[in-house]
Amino acid sequence: MAERINLTDQLKKYFGFDKFKGNQEAIIQNLLDGNDTFVLMPTGGGKSLCYQLPSLLMDGTAIVISPLIALMKNQVDAMRNFSEDDGIAHFINSSLNKSAIDQVKSDILSGKTKLLYVAPESLTKDEYVEFLRSVNISFYAVDEAHCISEWGHDFRPEYRRIRPIINEIGKAPLIALTATATPKVQHDIQKNLGMTDAKVFKSSFNRPNLYYDVRPKTANVDKDIIKFIKANQEKSGIIYCLSRKKVEELAEILQANGINARAYHAGMDSNTRTHNQDDFLMEKIDVIVATIAFGMGIDKPDVRYVIHYDIPKSLEGYYQETGRAGRDGGEGQCITFYTNKDLQKLEKFMQGKPVAEQEIGKQLLLETAAYAESSVCRRRALLHYFGEEYMEENCGNCDNCLNPKKQVEAQELLCTVIEAITAVKENFKADYIIDILQGRETSEVQAHLHEDLEAFGSGMGEEDKTWNAVIRQALIAGYLSKDVENYGLLKVTPEGHKFLKKPQSFKITEDNDFEEVEEETPARGGGSCAVDPGLYSMLKDLRKKLSKKLEIPPYVIFQDPSLEAMATIYPVTTDELQNIPGVGAGKAKRYGEEFCKLIKRHCQENEIERPEDLRVRTVANKSKMKISIVQAIDRKVALDDIALSKGIEFEDLLDEVEAIVYSGTKLNIDYFLDEIMDEDHLLDIYDYFKESTTDNIADALEELGEDFSEEEVRLVRLKFISEMAN
Q1: Which of 69, 322, 387, 479 could form a disulfide with 474 if both were Cys (CB 3.0 to 4.6 A apart)?
Q2: Model-level pTM?
Q3: Is 386 contained in some domain?
């Protein structure tokens, strides 16, 4: 056993800190005593010190297995800052050339190097295994250990090979560290690393300084984000998007609106990526728009907000990413924009993966949806997910606690749920239980002959939403539990059985209502939400007058959402008009002048100050996708082939083409329509739009009858708008 040394003195000597945070000292002592150690510590809790300090105090070199090159480089630079000798810390990964690797080996063999960071892929190479067998290894550290588990938010198969390779290199104490792990993931990590006897140090996952807020994602999401950033000027923020395309688009839109923002994703060339990251760390830019590739190991303490443009794939991912805000204990706002459509997209992406992986992915998405839609304290829901109980009724720092909903008594409803779960022998998931309660004779229910149960149809008086809320809140209250090993089957806990025998008050808050919001491309219809209703109605009159004069339907000139935006932003020149959604250069030129004159006159007569800051400047149709679609249509490429070549669904291609046409660009798709459509069919639809006062697809389908498909109607509407308006 190592001789006890005063760790606080060593902390001061090497790192200049006067005292340890949380469990750090006990963790370090456990490692110095030669024991396997498992560390669960939230982002910002000081995980890296738990292996950095012991590496300096022990004989030999510590091997840190870490998944990201950026993270290694950061930590090596940080260690070198604390020491006079650059050789004290090194990394080995695919970015090094042979002479750099020889230098690393020489420093290790001479005893200079106390810390060696290795990517798991490099660790598996025979040449490194052979070399490390000749090295005196003080201990192994597995950072971001959740990567081992398929239930973690960043599964990496190569992490599964760590234990066998460690056995091959040579035995030494092992420390595994992660900032997020549900009880299931924790068990996976320990089992896989062969450290089930390790001492576990678990810090609280509660970050009291973080404010959690989930907002509905509407067609105005870009505008909402711009307003938020402008209200938080000169503060550092991260915006996470799921796709690289969205990252680039949003970064461009923010720049066009005077916000100092840059993009970051794995598809960029590494120089630009590193440059953008460094500029963010050095505060040359305020906002980084990124995929989740950004942020692991980025030690910037004063990120003041993290915005999720898209909901993450798992609550662990969400916790890890929001955890990059307020690491210094100061303000940290975590804003997430949520629509169920995003989850449906994510589920689509999973198709084609192995069934087990799809099941896990779906489970994780369901947990995310439950968190987003729930109206209970966000902190409580999040901590419950990580196996921690939060006793406060109101945390005072999340949207649900600051705007609490009325609670309703649900004692009888919970009894009904418990009876249904027991009736099906605790063998089914929440959605199946709700089918039983609602008396739905699905094929699965019939296959199990469950339509004959007494519980079948016992909950038909309530909506699915209410049953979901009862189940979610009963899980948090401890009356039900989920068997995660078996894809989330619902079980009744001993507390739940007691409740059924002797029911007591059980109050729930109904879930938040996230109505389905219209997609942005192209925004249509809907009640007016213009800032200036007077101007909005004048603009509608002008549109009507023009429509009569030009003998075209009003919506062909400008759609309602475009008029709403005009009555909010007050554009007075045709250039400004092009910043309005759905107005391209062609439309602005053709119809814009009269509208601008009317708006200008209205502003002067009513002494209106135009809200410059509210104007969302869209990036001129620079989108490569749009340009290449227009070019392909000019070359008469079949639309389904265009979708195939872009790797998108046909429906998504139609969205893109609609956005192009509605903005005023003329496209001729006759070559495609002639190929796929009956001429009479086409003329019927065309004539319908000529007569109609609305371009709404649902109205058209109702009027035209069931012989017509939505796809056909959308295609002919494109032809109509293009010919009549552009």
Answers
A1: 479
A2: 0.63
A3: no
